[in-house]
Amino acid sequence: MRERITLVHRPESGIDPDALTLDKSGLKAPSSIEAVREDRLTVTLDTLTHELAQLLQDFDVLRVRWASPVRHQTLEPFSSRLSPGLHVSYTPSSSETPHDPSRLCAFLRALGPLDCMSHEAFTISGSPDKPDYYFYQPMLDIEAISRAFETDLCRGHESCRTRAGELKTAASVDFTFDKGTEVSKLSALWPLSEQQVDFVADPSHRVEVGILTRGEPPSLGRHDVGMSGLLAVLGERKTPSPTLFKFASRHRTAAAHFTSRFLAPTGLHPTLQISLDGAGGGRPPSSSSSEEDGDGDGDGDGACKPYAFLTLPKTIFADRYQLDDQLFLASKNLTAARHMSHPVDLEAPAYTTTTWGSNLLVEMAAPGSDGWTVEVPLHLRYLEPSATGERDVAVPYPVVFWACERAAEGTALADNPFDRTGLGYDQLFSPDTVFWHVEPRPAHGAATADIVNHIAVPVLREEAASWVGAGTAAVVSLGFAWVLWKLATLYASVGYKAGAGDDKKRQ
Fold first, then answer.
1. SS3 of 275-318
2. Is residue 171 within 8 Å of residue 191, measured between CB atoms?
3. Strand 372-377's sheet: what is its strand order?
4. Which residue windows are transmembrane per the record (predicted)?
5. Cys-Cys with 184: which of 177, 190, 295, 473 at CB 3.0–4.6 Å?
6. Distance CA 90, CA 285 (A)
């Protein structure tokens, strides 16, 4: 097992190297530092529980990710974003179609109640011979995830158990497995906040610590992120080593932020409003003004265009036919619906829908010099009755970014030691696309710091449900009786006239 701890701070809030104490026991500093922190544990299959190791053999790739619903601030190179909730994606190692996800779902239920036991709960993308399965469920509490990792991933490793317990305050948690490397990785990210510099060496595995900030190494390219700072291997070195390096980054931070809310009144056809604030909506620095019309190449780059990637639970959906109307889209500051996952049943109520929900990628019209607003039309499904006559529908904030396709052509983005892939939206673009992420913030006047929108949906009261059923049966019965009566009356009248006509002919 290998452990890597990274602190990234602003240049103005550094730490004095002479104040650090590095010895066989670990690394300490007398004071905390405002920084973003990432912990990553890399473990082989033989260090996992037998049950988990056997389960992982079913997959070529498995990714289980959780993102916090609480707004947080981060620094590069930790710029990538996900909508709040639990995201599960995998590529099965077997060609069996459809793949049975029940073993995986049974294991994941340690994280909480999940509706994923059948393959119909997953959306499928990719090629038929190598399908990718995806499942999402809103999950606001991370304590169950912390307990599950502590039990199943950290068998016998006290340092790992301690790290897993600290996940309760994390902004995001990733568990990934790649059969090609036969290793699994647990990564956790803590937002920009005060972090204690007190890391303990573990004789059972290698522990690397980096305290870094933005740097300016020679020949820094337009897609490169430069880092400088100190590196230490706990228990092996007596002094931290200074470092200066660079790497091309797939995910960058745009100089803007956005808010999201549903326009009132919502009704059964709510409109999601996305408002961007910042110069040019956070247009990437290398973009030229001609890209507003999609014609420019951004100083040699591919055209950078703004997108929103929506993760919609089964209670709400977008109508692909409505989003095919170009005039309608233009009135909403949208350019096109670039992707919608399958299947999406436009008629079924939520309580009969087996699929988790759907993803929607919309291209937004390029903003002017100031911020601007777009609107995405959505539709609610019919929900089950409740005791109060209302049900709460939680819809996570979308991921908003500028995508610069072909921007890093010929650049080794995968060489980034902090690279993050398989996020759902990145597979919809070319592999050399660079994403400039816009920071989500709660809407002005929001009661909480959550980046989740809520809709109070009126439904039938439970006490009235039986009356509605009985009333419906009575109305149907009366209607059926009325139809039979009308048919009998008509038959009697027509039959009598036909009989009278036959008598006249015989006479």
1. EEECHHHCCCCCCCHHHHHCCCCCCCCCCEEEEEEEEEECCEEC
2. yes
3. 334-340, 357-364, 304-313, 399-404, 434-440, 251-262, 271-277, 372-377
4. none
5. 177
6. 35
Residues 359 and 175: their CA atoms lie apart, in Å, by 21
pLDDT beyond 90 at 161: no
Residue with tokens 């209607």: 479
Give the CA diameter of the chain: 128
Count Cβ atoms within 10 A of the Cβ of residue 485 and give its class: 0-12 exposed, 13-18 middle, 19 or more buried: exposed
Region for residue 395 given its phi and psi (left: phi exceeds 0; alpha: psi -120 to 50; beta: otherwise)? beta
* 2-36 residue pLDDT tens: 999 999 999 998 888 889 999 888 999 999 999 99
For 216-236, what is the mean pLDDT?
91
Query: For 256-291, what is each residue's pLDDT tens digit?
Result: 999 999 999 999 999 999 999 877 778 887 654 444
**DSSP summary character for residue 59:** E
Q: In what order do the strands lie in the sheet with 21-23?
A: 21-23, 26-28, 198-200
Nearest Cα to 179, choosing from 88, 101, 94, 86? 94
Measured CA to CA, the distance from residue 115 to residue 112 in angstroms comes to 10
Highest mean pLDDT among 125-134, 260-269, 277-286, 456-465: 260-269
User: How far apart are the C-alpha atoms of 238 and 224, rounded to whole Å?
Assistant: 31
pLDDT at 299: 41
